[in-house]
Amino acid sequence: MNCLQNLPRSSALPSNGLKSHPRKPLRHSFVRLMDKLNISNLRQSSSINVTSGRSSSTEMSDSGVEEEKSEIYSNNMTQAMGAVLTYRHELGMNYNFIRPDLIVGSCLQSPEDVDKLRKIGVKTIFCLQQDSDLEYFGVDISAIQQYAKQFDDIQHLRARIRDFDAFDLRLRLPAVVSKLYKAINRNGGVTYIHCTAGLGRAPATALAYMFWVQGYKLSEGHSLLLSKRPCFPKLDAIKSATADILTGLAKKHVTLMWEGNNCSSVEISGLDIGWGQRIPLKFNEKGQWILERELPEGHYEYKYIIDGEWTCNKYELVTLPNKDGHVNNYIDVTSTDPNSSSAELQKRLSDDNVNLTQKEKLMIRQFLEEYPEEEL
């Protein structure tokens, strides 16, 4: 039987996962397929097996290559999630029923997986993967989509969210859950939500739907989710996305600066774009490198990249060292009025046991219904 492994947090890993990354922040291995990584931290003595659904029997042409890809992906996922996780793509699709009408699982790998889902009553397949995720494991999404179109009792939809990126998850959740909500209302039956491994983006999307639409308290939905499938949905991203919907995604103007004319390029990574991307700063006549940015309220960590070298700006706020002694710069974007409704909502949402008021539920439901259809 196919399974995932969820192992205890390793003391050798950063305490905050991606938030305080050693050396330089995490880059997707999708562009470095065959990099040799040290995976000794993944091999722990204890594990928890996830009860899987009916797994795909797709044969891999080169099992060694597939296993290496899985090891690389698992290593990146471990660092991003802050807990040791293993995903074995070569073992096929795996999933768990969270509710009778809601499944969270790993990605479909072949058109035959559509047949497996139809047999258990799935009416909507909701894919959260980006093209780079699919390319990394060689999944032919077009073949899966074309096969699904042959049937009038199942629909395949995509709503892309960047892997290992809590901020992108936060920004995209409102639009993604709106698309999911409309599909469920239209198709009924069982819904299958998946990302690549089914441990981050998919459970977060399912939990946001349970919180915003199905009436669960966040803590209750989270507990139910974990009781069915060991996974790591980013609760802070869901809370922030909730506040974004209810407050209209208010943004603040932020200026970041690096002083010095003894370098040829200055970039920033992290912040609101994720660790896999960079923003160039502009050089002015005063010898300053400047970045002007509009950011929603929240906590942001980032690092400067000076002529290719990752470093912190000692004149800006710095995180406490993690267990390996590594730090990032950070900025907290907050309301200037601590007594504002936005500040009060943010404070209330900081509690994991938060429940939405009836008015807030109606506001979110209206938002989801009115959000314009778009390609996600």
Features of the shown structure:
alpha+beta; five-stranded antiparallel beta sheet; disordered N terminus; 376 residues; single chain; 15 strands; five-stranded mixed beta sheet; 10 helices; 32% helix
Secondary-structure blueprint of this entry?
Layout: E1 5-7, H1 63-81, E2 84-86, E3 95-99, E4 102-105, H2 112-119, E5 122-127, H3 131-136, H4 141-148, E6 155-158, H5 166-187, E7 190-194, H6 201-212, H7 218-228, H8 235-247, E8 251-259, E9 266-270, E10 274-280, E11 282-283, E12 288-296, E13 298-306, E14 309-311, E15 329-333, H9 341-349, H10 358-370
Parallel strand pairs: 4-7, 5-6, 5-7
Antiparallel strand pairs: 1-2, 3-4, 8-12, 9-10, 9-13, 11-12, 13-14, 13-15
Helix pairs in contact: 5-6, 5-8, 5-10, 6-7, 6-8, 8-9
